[in-house]
From TrEMBL:
<dbReference type="Pfam" id="PF05504">
    <property type="entry name" value="Spore_GerAC"/>
</dbReference>
<feature type="domain" description="Spore germination protein N-terminal">
    <location>
        <begin position="20"/>
        <end position="178"/>
    </location>
</feature>
<keyword id="KW-0449">Lipoprotein</keyword>
<feature type="domain" description="Spore germination GerAC-like C-terminal">
    <location>
        <begin position="189"/>
        <end position="349"/>
    </location>
</feature>
<dbReference type="InterPro" id="IPR038501">
    <property type="entry name" value="Spore_GerAC_C_sf"/>
</dbReference>
<keyword id="KW-0732">Signal</keyword>
<comment type="similarity">
    <text>Belongs to the GerABKC lipoprotein family.</text>
</comment>
<dbReference type="InterPro" id="IPR046953">
    <property type="entry name" value="Spore_GerAC-like_C"/>
</dbReference>
<keyword id="KW-0309">Germination</keyword>
<dbReference type="Pfam" id="PF25198">
    <property type="entry name" value="Spore_GerAC_N"/>
</dbReference>
<keyword id="KW-0564">Palmitate</keyword>
<dbReference type="InterPro" id="IPR008844">
    <property type="entry name" value="Spore_GerAC-like"/>
</dbReference>
<keyword id="KW-0472">Membrane</keyword>
<protein>
    <recommendedName>
        <fullName>Ger(X)C family spore germination protein</fullName>
    </recommendedName>
</protein>
<dbReference type="InterPro" id="IPR057336">
    <property type="entry name" value="GerAC_N"/>
</dbReference>
Length: 355
C-alpha cells in the first residue's frame, strides 16, 4: 500500500512541474523559411491561428545571428511561440549557395526540433513560397513533400538524414527543390546537391528519380517514369517495387545492380502489349535507358566532386586506412562504375523478365 501511495505522490509532483500550455494561448510554428541578404538572416514563420478566421498566419523578421531569429519573432507575438511542431524548413537557393553551416549547427543543438522534419530548397524567395502556403490547409506543404517522397519521384530526406550526411564522412547532402509555376502552384522540381556546406549542383526530375532509386530503401523504390523510345514515341510505366545492390569490390571499381518490377501504362503505337517480342524489345530499351542514365549521372557527380550516393561511406567501411581528403582528391574521381539494370515487366497479366 505504501508503494502505491509513493507512486501517486511522485505522479502529482511530476505533473506539478510540467509547464501548462493552452492551445489557443500559444503560437505553434508549422513551417520556417530562411533567406539571406548580406549578413542578415530573413526568417518567415507560419503558425496555426485558432482564434482567427484565417487558419494560417505568417510572421516575418530579421536577425544578425541564426540562433537569434526568435528574438524579433517574440517581439511581434502576443503569445508564447512553440517550435516543437515545425515539420518543414524552406531555404532559398541563395541561402543554400552561401552556406548551410549555421543551419546544420543550429539543428544539431536544438533539442526541440523534430528529426523527422524536412528541409527543402526554394527557387523563389522564401517569403513568396511561405505566403502561398497560407491559402492551403495546415501542414499541406509538409504533406505534399512527404507524398512525393513516398509515392512520387523525390528521394527521401529529413533532418536526421541531412545531419548524418553533413557531419558524416564519405557522403554529401542533397535536398528536394520547390518551384512555383506560372499559375502560382508549388511543386517539387528536382534535387539540389551540396559540396560541403554549399549548394553545388541541381538535378532535374529524371536525375532526381535515379538518385531516389539508388538511395531509398526498398519499400519506397516506387514512382512513375516516362521517356522517348527508339521510335521517338513516349514509353510510360509505373515502378511497383525494386531492389539494388552496391558493392565496392576493388578500390577503383564499384558495381551497381538494379532490379525493377514495372507495369507498362503507355506503349509506342507500333508495339503490342500482348506480343512477347515487342515486350522483350521494350524491356531491353528500358534497361539500356536506366543503365546509361545512371552512368551519365555518376560521371556528373565525379566531375563536380560531389557524392550524394555515399560511395565514400561504402569505401570507408571496407578500408581501415581511410583518409577522406585522399579519397576525395585521388580515389573518387577515378572510380570506374559498372551498372547492371534488370527490368521485369508486368502488364495485363503478361510477365517478361527474369523472376
Amino acid at each position: 500500500m505504501k508503494m502505491y501511495v509513493s507512486i501517486l505522490l511522485v505522479s502529482f509532483l511530476l505533473s506539478g512541474c510540467a509547464k501548462r500550455e493552452i492551445i489557443d494561448q500559444i503560437k505553434i510554428v508549422q513551417s520556417l523559411g530562411f533567406d539571406v541578404q548580406g549578413d542578415t538572416f530573413k526568417v518567415s514563420a507560419s503558425y496555426a491561428s485558432y482564434q482567427k478566421k484565417k487558419r494560417l498566419r505568417l510572421m516575418i523578421a530579421e536577425a544578425q545571428t541564426f540562433s537569434g531569429i526568435w528574438i524579433p519573432h517574440n517581439k511581434q507575438s502576443d503569445d508564447h511561440i512553440v517550435s516543437g511542431q515545425v515539420r518543414t524548413l524552406v531555404i532559398s537557393e541563395k541561402f543554400a549557395r552561401k552556406s548551410i553551416q549555421d543551419l546544420a549547427s543550429s539543428l544539431l543543438r536544438d533539442p526541440v526540433m523534430s528529426n523527422n522534419a524536412t528541409i527543402v530548397i526554394s527557387k523563389q524567395e522564401v517569403n513568396t513560397i511561405m505566403s502561398e502556403t497560407l491559402n492551403n490547409p495546415p501542414f499541406d506543404l509538409t504533406d505534399q513533400i512527404n507524398q512525393n517522397m513516398k509515392n512520387g519521384n523525390t528521394p527521401f530526406s529529413n533532418v536526421h538524414l541531412v545531419l548524418d550526411q553533413y557531419y558524416g564522412e564519405g557522403q554529401d547532402v542533397y535536398l528536394p527543390i520547390l518551384n512555383q509555376d506560372k499559375n502560382g502552384l508549388i511543386r517539387l522540381d528536382g534535387v539540389g546537391v551540396f559540396k560541403e556546406d554549399k549548394l553545388c549542383l541541381l538535378l532535374n526530375d529524371k536525375e532526381s528519380f535515379i538518385l531516389k532509386l539508388l538511395k531509398d530503401k526498398t519499400k519506397t523504390m516506387t514512382g512513375a517514369y516516362e521517356f522517348l523510345g527508339r521510335e521517338n514515341e513516349p514509353i510510360y510505366f509505373k515502378i511497383l517495387h525494386g531492389k539494388k545492390n552496391i558493392t565496392n569490390e576493388q578500390n577503383d571499381s564499384v558495381v551497381i545492380s538494379l532490379k525493377l518490377h514495372i507495369q507498362l501504362r503507355e506503349l509506342p503505337k507500333t508495339k503490342s502489349s500482348v506480343s512477347k517480342s515487342d515486350l522483350l524489345e521494350l524491356k531491353h530499351d528500358i534497361e539500356q535507358h536506366f543503365t546509361s542514365g545512371i552512368s551519365d549521372m555518376l560521371k556528373k557527380f565525379q566531375m563536380n566532386a560531389v557524392d550524394p550516393i555515399g560511395f565514400g561511406e561504402i569505401y570507408r567501411s571496407n578500408n581501415r586506412n581511410w583518409n577522406e581528403q585522399e579519397y576525395k582528391t585521388k580515389t573518387y574521381p577515378n572510380i570506374k562504375f559498372e551498372v547492371n539494370t534488370e527490368i521485369n515487366i508486368s502488364h495485363s497479366g503478361v510477365g517478361i523478365g527474369a523472376e
